[in-house]
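> @MW can you paste both from yesterday?
MW: sure, first one:
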Amino acid sequence: QVQLVESGGGLVQAGGSLRLSCAASGRTFSGYNMSWFRQAPGKEREFVAAISWSDGSTYYADSVKGRFTISRDTAKNTVYLQMNSLKPEDTAVYYCAAGDLRRAGRRPNEYAYWGQGTQVTVSS
């Protein structure tokens, strides 16, 4: 059974940093894209960043490019999202997702597996 468990969320002031972690288990993730999405109250879930488990290729939403960095540690089966220069508009529940890289892009419905989410709140 695939499990994705996020951690690292919290409350931070604007301009601060947080690092989110996603511990993955239950299958081999080679051939998968691992991504972070976020959902603010009253808004649709949106793509944040993705990384290919196999070769480490990364992709970012324009809104976070240059501020957020996605990475993975294949030995620990963990994906990270380093978030710097945080803004109040980054406030959301952040979700980790895994999907077959042949299908998984920037749309939530392209991903088969999801974590429970972790809250990130950025105060102004």
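MW: second:
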Amino acid sequence: EVQLAESGGGLVQPGGSLRLSCTASGFTFSSYSMSWVRQAPGKGVEGVARITSNGRNTYYADSVKGRFTIARDNRQKTLYLQLDSLKTEDTAMYYCARGPGNWFGSGPVDYDYRGQGTQVTVSS
């Protein structure tokens, strides 16, 4: 059974930082691209970042480019998202997702599994 468990969310002031983690189990983590997606209240799911299976290539939505960094540790089966220079518009539930292999920073993210999410709230 595929399981993805996010952690690290919280309340932070504008300009602050957070580091999200996602531990994976039930599949061969190192064989899959992994993504972070988010959903703000009243809005649809938005792709944030993707990293290829070997970690060599990363892709970001324009709205987070230069502020967020995706990384992975295949030995620990863990996916990370470093969020810096946070803005109020980054407030959302953040989800770790398996796949896809064809998202390059825009458009829908066609993943097959995602976790339960971790809430990020940016507010003064």
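> thanks! The chain is about 0% helix and 45% strand.
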